[in-house]
Every structure is written in structure tokens, then in C-alpha cells.
Design goal:
11 helices, alpha/beta, 69% helix, 7% strand, 5-stranded parallel β-sheet
Length: 358
């Protein structure tokens, strides 16, 4: 038992080291979210093993009670999470539609919640009916089997994306930033900042105050339906919050997140003779991780921090961000899908050959 406990402690220590290694050196991948889950999971296992050892070595009622509480909490969490997720997705989706209108962009979280319910309840019935069809039943079985694999991978990747995005906003207490880039979004019809964009700027100003001597970069061009470039409205709002004009740089040519970051990096490289150092990207909390992934592609050292967005809006936006992430990595996921399809078909063919003889 002591050897098992030692192994559990070593495994937990390895998990913590892996997470902190990525946290301090490179957060911008799904490995970061996986390392966090491994760190938490191995720590829980180590604690559980130590409690079991304490209980087995001597009849210790406190250790027994703690052990039961840990097991109970884990069991309840595992059972309640899927239900809580579906309820939250549906409830937040309905609230968003009521507040913002029933356009396709606002129906993503509601649609995802409905799809999860359909997968649990409707999918097995449809699969059972179609796979029993003569002649074509085998084809349908292959299609449903491979679709289930893809859905499983998508679910795991979405979970890692969400966890990575949340953990990536853990602040680095001892880091100081000389350049803080605030990403723009749409403006009001009169050319002023929207409440969403105002929160981004306020968060950027907060970070500027925490980093004395730093510069704020307001990044955002002029949309076809906007009265002025977003960055100009952001600069005016930052000045109204007490930021001096000389502390603000403006990037006003970009039209999307990639251009926000690329043009801002170019602006800083020109100003700092190519040595802008690590920047701090400020945007909505659900948008931080994708922005960081883009900075990695651009070769720009960066950390991120998010402004708080209400849950009913951020969940829907998170689904949209996930779709954008898959598009960003479509070459990788296309290759992965093809490789999995080949393996699946080969395995299915082998099983079909072995089954008759068995």
C-alpha cells in the first residue's frame, strides 16, 4: 500500500509540474487544458489513496468520513454535470433569444442543448431502426459508428478548448507588460462604444493601471456600417476614464481578430524597433483563448485577460468561438478525420472477416 501511495504522489507531482510548465511557458494549445485536468485528477487520486492508506493502517473515523465525502462529491459531480450542462445551455439560449432576438447567431447554445438531448434520446432509436434495414443496414451501422467517434472527439476537444480558455486567464502575478492590446468590436449607431466594448476598454484600462509605464493599443478598424473606426471610439472612451492621450496607440485598419493582432504587432514592432516583448491581449472572456491561438500562429508572445460577459451571452458566443477555432485548425481536423476513417474502415473490415469464423 505504501508503494502504491508513493506512486500516486509521484504521478500527482508529475501532473502539477506538467501544468505549471505549460502555464509559465506556453498556454496556447489544447494540451494546456488537458494538463490542468490531469493535474487536478492526479491530485484527487493521490489524496484519495492517502486517505485510504490512513484508514487501512488504523481505524480512523475522521479519515473514513473524509474519504466518503470525497467519493460522494465526485460521484454527484459526475452524475449532475451532464444534466446541469444541458439545462444551462437551454435556459441561457432561451434567455438570449428573448433579450437579443431569434436570429441564427443567437440560437447556438439552445441548438447545442437540444442536440445533446436528441443524441441521448433520439439517436439510439434512429440508429436501431436504420441498422435493422435489410442490405443497407450494414452501411448505416458503419455511418452511425463513425459519426459517434467524430462526436466523441468533438466533445473532448470542445471540453479541452473550454477548460484551456478558462485556465489561460489565470493571472501571472509577477509578470509586467509594457504593451496592452484591447481588441475592438462593433459600435453604436452614433459611433460610441457599445456596453460590450466599453467593458473591454475598462478592463484594458484596469490592466494599464496595474502596469505603470505601459501603453494601451486600441485595435479596430471602421466597419461598413460604422460612423468611425472602432479604435477611435475606444481611445475617446479610455481618455474619459483618465488615460492620457500619450499612453494610447491606435490601430485603425483591421477588420477581424487576426488583423487586430497582426496589425497591432506590426505597430508595436515599428515603435519598439522589433522588440515589443510579451503583450497582454484584452477581449471578452469567451474570446481570449482563440485570440491567443492566433498570436501563437503569428509568432507573437502573448498572455490574455478577459472582460466579464453575462453567462447567457457568453455560452452562446463560446459555441461560436468553438466553430471559429475548428475553422482555424481545419487542416488538422481534416487530416485527423481522414486518418480515423481509414482506421475505422480497416477495423470494421477485419471484424467482418473474423465474425463469421467466430
Amino acid at each position: 500500500m505504501e508503494a502504491f501511495a508513493l506512486a500516486a504522489i509521484c504521478l500527482a507531482a508529475t501532473g502539477q509540474l506538467w501544468f505549471w510548465r505549460l502555464h509559465t511557458h506556453e498556454q496556447r494549445s489544447l494540451w494546456y487544458g488537458l494538463s490542468f485536468l490531469v493535474a487536478v485528477g492526479t491530485a484527487v487520486v493521490a489524496i484519495e489513496v492517502l486517505l485510504l492508506q490512513a484508514f487501512s493502517l488504523e481505524s480512523h473515523p475522521v479519515a473514513e468520513q473524509i474519504n466518503l465525502v470525497v467519493i460522494g462529491v465526485m460521484a454527484v459531480a459526475l452524475l449532475a454535470f451532464p444534466v446541469a450542462l444541458v439545462v444551462t445551455l437551454v435556459a441561457s439560449g432561451v434567455r438570449l433569444i428573448r433579450r437579443e432576438g431569434a436570429n441564427p447567431r443567437n440560437m447556438l447554445s439552445l441548438g447545442l442543448g437540444i442536440l445533446v438531448v436528441a443524441y441521448v434520446i433520439v439517436w439510439p432509436q434512429v440508429r436501431s431502426a436504420l441498422t435493422s434495414v435489410p442490405v443497407l443496414g450494414r452501411v448505416f451501422d458503419l455511418v452511425f459508428g463513425f459519426a459517434a467517434i467524430l462526436l466523441g472527439i468533438a466533445g473532448v476537444a470542445f471540453t479541452l478548448y473550454t477548460v484551456s480558455g478558462l485556465v489561460a486567464q489565470i493571472p501571472h502575478r509577477h509578470r509586467r507588460y509594457q504593451r496592452i492590446v484591447v481588441l475592438g468590436s462593433g459600435l453604436m449607431p452614433d459611433g460610441s462604444v457599445t456596453p460590450l466594448l466599453a467593458h473591454r476598454v475598462e478592463r484594458g484600462v484596469e490592466m494599464w493601471r496595474r502596469n505603470p509605464g505601459s501603453a494601451l493599443v486600441m485595435s479596430g478598424g471602421k466597419g461598413a456600417d460604422e460612423a468611425q473606426p472602432e479604435s477611435h471610439a475606444m481611445r475617446a472612451y479610455a481618455e474619459s476614464l483618465g488615460v492620457p492621450a500619450e499612453a494610447i496607440l491606435v490601430e485603425d485598419k483591421s477588420a477581424n481578430t487576426r488583423e487586430n493582432l497582426r496589425f497591432s504587432a506590426q505597430l508595436l514592432a515599428d515603435k519598439d524597433s522589433g522588440n515589443a516583448g510579451r503583450i497582454l491581449v484584452v477581449t471578452d472572456d469567451y474570446h481570449v483563448f482563440r485570440a491567443l491561438l492566433i498570436t501563437r500562429e503569428l509568432g507573437v508572445p502573448a498572455d490574455g485577460v478577459g472582460s466579464h460577459v453575462r453567462l447567457y451571452f457568453s455560452l452562446n458566443a463560446l459555441v461560436r468561438e468553438w466553430v471559429a477555432y475548428v475553422s482555424l485548425r481545419r487542416a488538422f481536423y481534416t487530416r485527423l478525420t481522414i486518418a480515423l476513417l481509414v482506421i475505422y474502415l480497416v477495423a470494421s473490415g477485419f471484424n467482418a472477416m473474423v465474425a463469421p469464423s467466430a
